[in-house]
Every structure is written in structure tokens, then in C-alpha cells.
Design brief:
binds magnesium ion, 2 domains, Carbamate kinase, 32% helix, alpha/beta, single chain, six-stranded antiparallel β-sheet, 20 strands, binds aspartic acid, 11 helices, VC0802-like, binds adenosine-5'-diphosphate
């Protein structure tokens, strides 16, 4: 399949970290970008930092500071994607095309001031448009922008996807191609379930739930942005040709399987507050304190007091990276109300997503049975019309994903085979055998 269709269309191509990890891969990505240009497209490429660069930059910060200043963290983290873009531009120029690399700020990505997880407010793409009009290939450093206070910001882990979608929206691109290290969006993380199926298409509704529950192949905000601005996402392999997965509107998607995918996350933390006074407004104050600290609370459970005058307990999950900020934000409240506070860092989550769940009861019952039979303790549960999520111990996540994938037929036949007694059992990956 050609990378793009008719001449003169605008295409945004985003390459993830693994796809630009070393010199060879940068050259390969550059060649693909050039091919799209030679096919007659106006080409904008968004690049991520190479390989594990962003993780290494984060580690570097913690080597010198216990609590790195968020503004300076962004200054540091934004360098990774700049390196990739400059290198790719050099390769493209050597290939005989004109390329120009731009930082997020130069590309006109304007964000709010929430350092390390800024939101895009505006895309002023005039400079990109002018460069495209001049026949140039434009390379934009992903994952970053400039705040309304003129500081460098970053868009949260995985944020280059959002840069690409936002540019595609601003430029009226025909497609936003997300090139990554898997060949599309799968029914489960193919690294955990080797027999997982590639989805040829997935609805925004389902993709939002999948991204929100841990399928990091597309950053949640990129999917939200694409839905809100009508951007066509094509998620595909940077190592092979052939179509990947299209994210489409509900009207465009044909299939409504009961369960489309099992997703998971292994970086959750749980906070439990005990002895909350049983009076109106307390839960609101807890959640406001967390919202003001820019923490996204996921699952919340509150146990009502057994009898009048007693106190309530509340548990919720937050991304593990936000645990310290959450504890800091809650400290004044716990002191004020005499609340007990405990946290557990080793939590994970496993979820089933499927548009067909809306009209078919019984998925939750089966999921809980499967986890129960596997000896997995479900610690918290939440549901939406098309998703069921269970918080489990981090150590139980991989097993839970495999059991659910097998029970809900989310993998090709090879995930199951008959053992001598004829009882089905999931096949474990070679590294575990
Ligand atoms: P990139 O660096 O290209 O942005 P990411 O690591 O952010 O790539 O996302 C791709 C990874 O997402 C894959 O390597 C895969 O392990 C993981 N992943 C998790 N769930 C899924 C899923 N349902 N389908 C495809 N990939 C998934
Ligand atoms: N480099 C950033 C990260 O590792 C952004 C991205 O890759 O999308 O999170
Ligand atoms: Mg990513």
C-alpha cells in the first residue's frame, strides 16, 4: 500500500522512539519521509526522542535533585526530540531534499503552563505552511510546546502522538500516520499476548477507553484531539509496509464485537484515606486538592460509615508518577481532619473494552470469574458502558491479561493448546517458559 494517496495532499507522519533509536533507523525513517514527499505530498514529520532518551533524561534529573523543578524538567526533556529532528533533517538534506527542523515552539504549538503535562491551546502553523509552500519537508520536535508564559513545556509521556494530531488538525492534513514498533492497534499488547490480533479499524469511543486504560500505543490526548477535530489516524508499523489500524468514527466502523481488546497498566498507585468525617463536602475537598495539583484520579471507592457518627474510608488510584504530588497535596487536609493516609505503590489495572458490551450483560460476571479462577484478587472495580476495569496487584497483571485474552477469544488460536489431559491452558511467552 502506498504511504499516501493523491498528489498535493498533506500528510503528517509521526515516528516513535524505537523507530528513530539509532542512526540506521533515523535513516530508514528519513527515507520513508522522502518517499512520501516524492509521491507528491506536502510532508510534516513529527519525531520522538531516540530509544530510551526521555527515560535517561528523567533519571539524570533525579540524579541531581530529589524534586526536579517542573520548568527545568521540561527544558531538559524537550531536548530529546530536538536531537532526532536535527539528525533526520541532516539525512534528508543529504538525500537531496530540503528539510527544516523546528522545535515545538518554532512550530507554533502553544500550551497552557502545566509543566510536564501541558495541554495544547493553539497551533499557529504559519511557519510550517510557509515552509511547505517552499517545497520543504518540515520536521517538528514532538512532545513539546511553548506556554502562554513563553516557557518550554512538554505534553506528558507519549505526547508526540498529540503533537502529530494537533498539527494534522491545524494543517487540514488528510491523514495523521503514527509509525510505531508494532503494526497497529491490537486486541491486547502483543508483547504480552503474542497471538493478539491486529484491529483493522477501531472506533474513537473504543480507542479512548483503550488509551485511558493503558494501551499506550496512542496517547489518550491524541485520540481526544483527533475526535474533537476530525483527524484521521492511521497507526502502522515503521518497519514494514502494509496498512495498520484506522481510528474511525462510530458511524464509519462496521464491527461491534462484544469485547474488542484487553488493556492493562502496571504503573498505578493506590491511596487510602481512613477516618474521613461523615459530612458533606469532604470528598469534594479531597478531589479538589488533587485536581489543583494536576493529578488525574482514576478509580474511586468510598465506604460509607457503618453507623451514624462514624467515619468513612476512601480509596482511589493515581498514576504512580503522581503519588508524591498527591500525598503532598493531601497533607494539609489530613492534618485538618485527622485523616489516616496510606499508599500502595505496586498496583496495576486490567480492563476489557468493547462497544458491544453496551447491549450485552454478563461480560463483567465472566471477567470476574476468569480472574477468580486464576487466583487473582480484584482490589477495585469500575465500569463504563463499554469498559470494565479491575485494579489488581502489579504482579498479577500479565497473568490477568493472558487469561482474559484467552477467555474472550482476543488471540489467535495459538494462544491456547491442548495439554495431555485435554484441558485448555494459556501458552506463556518463551521468556517465561
Ligand atoms: P512509540 O515509541 O512508537 O510512541 P509506544 O511505546 O508509545 O511507541 O507504543 C507502542 C507500544 O504500545 C507497543 O510496543 C506495545 O507494546 C504497546 N501496546 C500496549 N497495548 C497495545 C495494543 N493494544 N496494541 C498495540 N500496542 C500496544
Ligand atoms: N519522548 C517522549 C516520551 O518518551 C514523548 C513520546 O515519545 O511521545 O514519553
Ligand atoms: Mg508513544
Amino acid at each position: 500500500m502506498p504511504d499516501a494517496g493523491r498528489p498535493d495532499q498533506t500528510v503528517v507522519m509521526k515516528f516513535g522512539g524505537t523507530s528513530v533509536a539509532d542512526a540506521e533507523r533515523i535513516k530508514r525513517a528519513a527515507a520513508r519521509i522522502v518517499r512520501a514527499k516524492e509521491d507528491g505530498n506536502r510532508v510534516v514529520a513529527v519525531l520522538s526522542a531516540r530509544g530510551k532518551t526521555t527515560d535517561e533524561l528523567v533519571d539524570m534529573a533525579y540524579e541531581v535533585s530529589e524534586r526536579p523543578h517542573p520548568r527545568e524538567m521540561d527544558m531538559l526533556l524537550s531536548t530529546g526530540e530536538r536531537i532526532s529532528c536535527a539528525l533526520a533533517a541532516m539525512v534528508i538534506n543529504d538525500l537531496g531534499h530540503e528539510a527544516i527542523s523546528l522545535t515545538g515552539s518554532q512550530a507554533g504549538i502553544v500550551t497552557d503552563t502545566s509543566h510536564t503535562k501541558a495541554r495544547i491551546l493553539d497551533v499557529r502553523a504559519d511557519r510550517i505552511r510557509a515552509a511547505l509552500d517552499d517545497g520543504k519537508i518540515v520536521l517538528v520536535a514532538g512532545f513539546q510546546g511553548v506556554s502562554t508564559e513563553y516557557d518550554v513545556t512538554t505534553l506528558g509521556r507519549g505526547g508526540s502522538d498529540t503533537t502529530a494530531v494537533a498539527l494534522a488538525a491545524a494543517l487540514g492534513a488528510d491523514v495523521c500516520e503514527i509509525y510505531t514498533d508494532v503494526s497497529g492497534v491490537f486486541s491486547a499488547d502483543p508483547r504480552i499476548v503474542p497471538g493478539a490480533r491486529k484491529l483493522t479499524q477501531v472506533s474513537f469511543e473504543e480507542m479512548l477507553e483503550m488509551s485511558a486504560s493503558g494501551a499506550k500505543v496512542l496517547q489518550l490526548r491524541s485520540v481526544e484531539y483527533a475526535r474533537n477535530h476530525g483527524v484521521r489516524i492511521h497507526c502502522r508499523s515503521s518497519f514494514e509496509d502494509g496498512p495498520g489500524t484506522f481510528v474511525l468514527t462510530e458511524q464509519e466502523t462496521m464491527e461491534r464485537p462484544l469485547v474488542t481488546a484487553v488493556t492493562h497498566s502496571t504503573d498505578e498507585a493506590r491511596i487510602t484515606l481512613t477516618g474521613l468525617p461523615d459530612q458533606p463536602g469532604v470528598a469534594g475537598r479531597v478531589l479538589t486538592a488533587l485536581a489543583e495539583a494536576n493529578v488525574n484520579v482514576d478509580m474511586i471507592i468510598q465506604n460509607e460509615p457503618q453507623s451514624e457518627g462514624h467515619r468513612a474510608d476512601m480509596s482511589f488510584t493515581v498514576p504512580r508518577s503522581d503519588l508524591q504530588a498527591s500525598l503532598d497535596a493531601l497533607e494539609p487536609l489530613t492534618a485538618e481532619y485527622g485523616i489516616g493516609i496510606a499508599s500502595d505503590t505496586n498496583m496495576g489495572k486490567v480492563s476489557l473494552v468493547g462497544a458491544g458490551m453496551k447491549s450485552h450483560p454478563g461480560v463483567a460476571a465472566k471477567a470476574f470469574r476468569v480472574l477468580g479462577d486464576a487466583g487473582v484478587n480484584i482490589e477495585m472495580i469500575s465500569t463504563s458502558p463499554i469498559k470494565i476495569s479491575c485494579v489488581v496487584r502489579e504482579d498479577d497483571v500479565v497473568r490477568s491479561v493472558r487469561e482474559l485474552a484467552a477467555a474472550f477469544d482476543l488471540a489467535e488460536e495459538d494462544i491456547r493448546h491442548e495439554d495431555v489431559s485435554g484441558v485448555h491452558r494459556p501458552v506463556v511467552s518463551s521468556e517465561e517458559r
